Amino acid sequence: MGSIDRRDSTPQLLNRLRMRQIALLLAVEECSTLRGAAAQLGLTQPAATKMLHELENALGQLLFERAGRSLRLNPAGERVLGYFRGIRGSMEALNRELSELQLGSAGRLAIGSIMAATPGRLTEALVQLKARFPLLAIEIAVDTSDQLMPQLHEGVLEVVIGRDACERSEHLFRTVDDEALAIVCSRDHPLAGERAVDFARLAAYPWILQPSGSPARDVVEREFGEHHRPMPRGLIETGSILTTMSLVARSQMLGAIPATVAQRNAEHGLVATIDYAFRHKLPSYGTIVRRDRPLSAPARHFLALFHGEPDAA
Predict the structure, then answer these.
(1) What's the pLDDT at 253?
(2) Does domain 105-178+284-312 bear CATH number 1.10.600.10?
(3) Residue 223, SS3?
């Protein structure tokens, strides 16, 4: 298969690609066989084979390794599929927004946020946004950054408030703040109220931590490593801060959550914070959007409000 000069070839690629080809590749991923993908799309297998060859010719790359009747994506195919998932997500978001506009609403905005942003800045921005767009449907997904970013890439979310650890070129990241971690415990825990708690005493208790790979988990693992101590055995892992606080409040376990969230819950008497400062902070968080997708009007207004820009008033 001949190669394509990638310089300034985007218009030609757009002219050659068809939505049906994108749908075929997504169906092949789901069904694992070309026969199954063809049946799903209502095509004959010869027609699907021809369409797949046309797609590979349009892209100038082979996308699959043939293994019997199965098709296995090669590295180029994996990359293309990732972008096609994003196209599908964008089309799903567009379809939802058009449907809601037809029903007389002001559209829909899907936001993903880490827990650290929810108590103050996010809440205030949402209150102001609803005052401006009373009929706007808003969906808020609260999770860790590593769980939210794939949803941004696929178009499920339009804006993410998180930590863009990958710093990929397709993202536009605007910093808001950095965040310290705090250790929380029950109000009657032996370490509650003590001053300058030694790390060795902390390491002796069971812990509740965010899943491996999350920024908060990385900070805790670095802390254990720098104190030359193994990670606690019998960990409970959860991305839910509500679950963490509920377990902490009824046990001797310790949890590590963003300091702003810990302080707010301690002020309400739900948990206590332990007098210990981690050596490292979480990476700065901020708003993250895709560079290659136009933002809806509600998303643009939300970002202005969230960042406190003068023209948002």
Answers:
(1) 96
(2) no
(3) helix
